[in-house]
Amino acid sequence: VPNDAQYSLAGLMVRTPRVINDPATDWQPGSMLDDGTNNGENYVFLSLGHGTDGLFSLESKTTRNSNSQLDLTPIHTGNIELRIARVGDAVISMYRYPGQQWTVHRRFERDDMPDTLQLGLVTYSDWTKANDFEPYVHNSTVLDGTGPNPTPGEPFNPDIVAGYEYAHFERPVLPAELEGVNLVTEASNLQLLSFLGDLDEGPQKPMNVGVNLEGIFDWSSAWIFKDAFKKSRPWTQIARNVDTGGTIWGPQDPNTPPLDLNENGWLNSLQTWVGTDGNTYRQEATAVVFAGEAQPPSGIYRAEWEGEGDILIWYEVSRGVNPDGSHYAIVQLPEDVENMFITIRETDPTDPIRNIRLWMPDHNGETLVGEEWAFGDTESPFHPLFLDRLQPFDTIRYMDWMHTNATTIVDWDDRARVEQSTMSEFEGDAVGIAPEYIVELSNELGANAWVNMPHMASDDYVQHFAELMRDNLDPELTIYVEWSNELWNGIFPVASWIYEQQALPENAGMGYFEVAAQEIRRDFEIWEQVFTGQEDRIVRVVAGQQASPAVLSMLLENMEGEFDAASVTAYADIGNGQIVNYDETTTADDIIDDILTQSIPWSIDRLAEHHAITQQYEVQLGREIPLLSYESGSHVFSFGTYFPYVPAYDAAIEAMNSPRMYDVYQELLNGARAVGLDLYNEFTFTSHTSGSQYGTFGLLHGQDEPVETAYEYQAIVDFLEEQDVYFNGFSYEEDFEDAENLFIPLNESQWTTPMLPGGNTMYQVDTSSSQGLGIALAEFDKPLPENFEIEVELLSIPGSDRWQDGFIIFDYVDETDFKYAGTFVGQNQWVVGHYQGNWGNRVAQVDWDDIGQQIYPNETYRLHLQINANQVELFVDDELIIQTEFGGLTELNGGGIGLAAYNAVTQFDQFRIADQFPPVPEFMPIQEDFENGPVYALQPTGGPEHAAIVNPTGLNSEFQLDTANFQGLKTALATFEGALPSGFRVEVDMTATSGPDRWQDGFIIFDYVDENNFKYAGSFVGQNQWVIGHYTGNWGNRLAEVDWDDNGQTIDPDQMYHLAVDIVGNLVEFSVDGIQVLSTTFEGLSDLNDGGLGLAVNNAETNFDNFSVASLLDQIFEEDLDGVLA
Known about the structure:
Layout: E1 8-15, H1 23-26, E2 43-50, E3 56-64, E4 67-74, E5 81-87, E6 90-96, E7 103-109, E8 118-124, H2 127-130, H3 135-138, H4 189-196, E9 208-212, E10 236-241, E11 247-249, E12 260-261, E13 267-269, E14 272-274, E15 280-290, E16 299-306, E17 309-313, E18 316-321, E19 327-333, E20 340-347, E21 354-359, H5 384-390, E22 395-397, H6 435-445, E23 448-453, H7 459-472, E24 479-483, H8 493-502, H9 512-530, E25 538-543, H10 549-557, E26 565-571, H11 576-579, H12 588-621, E27 627-633, E28 637-639, H13 649-656, H14 661-674, E29 677-682, E30 694-696, H15 711-728, E31 731-734, E32 743-745, E33 751-752, E34 763-766, E35 773-778, E36 787-797, E37 805-814, E38 817-824, E39 829-835, E40 842-847, E41 861-868, E42 871-876, E43 879-885, E44 896-902, E45 905-914, E46 926-928, E47 938-940, E48 947-950, E49 958-962, E50 969-974, E51 983-992, E52 1001-1010, E53 1013-1020, E54 1025-1031, E55 1038-1043, E56 1056-1064, E57 1067-1072, E58 1075-1081, E59 1092-1098, E60 1101-1111, H16 1113-1125
Helix pairs in contact: 7-9, 9-10, 12-13, 12-14, 14-15
């Protein structure tokens, strides 16, 4: 568009046809009314060009009976892809920058448009001149100056040259879940893009996930420091009446002197004074270490301090003096403590109490007692669990650690120092944590740092902070720099400060966001100067407001291009507009349904709108502008919520802790990635458990919350793992259950997918009767890595007209050139070779005749092939059979992968290939005495009913299964890490209690499949029998039993017996009180380590204690070795 005419644009249109043969007689102007008729021009345009301001813009126009409504959107480019979709009564316009993702632009309800429309390309120019002509003339005529001219004094000024690269026409297919949905008012942008926007190809790029840290307060639930005193509340003054001993919290009397503290916050002295009431008071100083919902760990703490005086430490059990003359106290913190204080009642002014440390209890056998941390120390100041739970996150946002929303920092000297008594703040100046801790945590985690510059910070502060980060943060890590936080949010001091700056004479005439952008640019310029030559280490972030894309637009318009990324929140929470409709009948599921169906789609749409803004600036600036979220999450309780005051409060608490929050987070994370978010920052890492009008956040509501019940945290971890596999891993699986699979046969007539009697589908090749070679090749959408593994189950079917064989093939070039690994069953051989028109070139083979073993037809073998460059290892049923190497320069990942058989009928199943199979987790032994809950190694199946922790003697806890009153079967299964070994032992103490309403029994169960299929070993006390059997809905299938009536012994109720079951393969040995009573073998069945294991009762009340599971393999090996040595 080279000149200056108005409304010169080109694009797409859809319109209602009009029959116009003679414009002079047939054409009539429209009624300009939406009156149910079609009596004028009716169309929708989406076009690109210049509107009225000489800037590239998108013009969106909808016209009803000649009444047009249009809007212009600045777009900053002359090259764009446009799309208009008509689905039912909805007309939807979209655009995308070349190579990027589609953005939904406008939606129109056009129920007036008929089934048949005109659609195509539209180009128009020089509206000023064209508008001088009658509408039917300029709508149907090329105005080239040769015909009538109603305004000869006004020149023609066409100024557009538009080139269309392509025009595609396609019929959209409406997804079933959107049938009946109003696409204009009810569907989200993401739902529209799911079938209109080419999203079927999967995510285009990974999304990093970071996290905000909770502010450092005594009530916060994060276990940040090994030294718990570092997050204690600053000293609070207590006035003690010298005569009565009564105390007053805080300086309530005007005569009260302030606490005498040194520069690091330690007491110099305590004062005595006379109050206005005439009483004499003595100062004391109290530090609140834990309060409210901090949820500190129970156990042994060690307090240490220097100086002399009188110090009171809650829950202290003993104290002493260290060799260096400093003091210590042992503190025993009970379970579920809410509050814990330390009070200095007296201190020696010449040697005051100072340098107090409160070392947290040992963690996983590691002592946390150490020395006062200094910047540069090799020892970490942070609690190991705090570090461990932060490991998954790419970026740590330190906004609340820096106390950004209340900061009073101006100069560098205002900052907190590492040497200070605590990093927590309560009243007075808000300066946040010592910045050295930010450097240390990011370095230890290998996580990028997101820092927020205080809104009043001087150039000196910004420069020193940037230099600290430049010189000490790992140069491989990125620093995200943001100015303040939510500058648009009136509840934070930054907003009033910006208004104050607007009022300054030098800022006269500047708008709110112009002043804000000026301050942001000032700080960014300092960071750029400090990082001269290392600019790629920093990302300058400008943050907007989720609900209003205009905020980001106004800020970026005034940034003069001096920014690297844009940011907004990605919250999907429950607003007051929803809460007012909740009542006492509202359930947790109702609330979660609203998050999934309303809040998340709304949030994703807002992200899409902001992404469209960053895409515009990418085109304008010629570089990538990523969209980030500075805070995100699906929060039931958000700021200003009514929830604490409505009957649905309990339902909201239940929703917040519901397992369905896992689904909520998966939906939010995947939606955010789909619309192009580069970095998702969760708010927050930890938080309290109760609902609050100020917001309840936190992936973890306690630092040690079990990951299994931290559903939001687990959702993020799983999302990141799955994303890593998708983008960085090579992994495919095929079970052949679907009509389509990974494989393409070279001869389709040879390959079928028969279903076996048990319902399992196999992939079968039939080249019997001398049909020769049958090959099926796998199709992957990623290139093979250099190293990879293949696994498949293989079964060869015998017959008189065939061989018996089957192969994994790799490095396939053509039918006469590929590598193979597999079996010639008839020759009893496992082979690895190079097929070159025949099977003669066997690189390695193992003949099982030589070791007395047999490869059987009609038996399934699991082949596992590992390829590392040119080295090949073939495992059969986990046993290494062949280890060999292909010499020369052969690249074994250069050709295809497939399955094959020769003159045979062979079935394949459970194929998988990956760059590396996940390691089989090592089995971890179980020891459970039921003393320390709330989570135990045994969990009742079907819910907690009929199961409890009891303490019948008052001495120790036991696990009770109670189905007395003939309530049937109750089982509890063990949870453990790793797979059970082929040889293991299960032990438990069992006491079957007597009573008239019950049987007396108890069992160890193993190879558990479901409630109607498991093996067992235990006792029917009333029948005086010990038994081993297979429960299949009843107890009749007893493989071995012994009746103590036969040897004059009695199994007594209310007496404890120690049961031990040893299982090796299919062999089971059962011992009672150390004496073997039964032994049997489960013939013809799979190994007994495949299913679950646990405990069971039937119509009984039975107590169990000291449950354990351990591997027998080491013991078996030692016994065999002893026999050899003997």
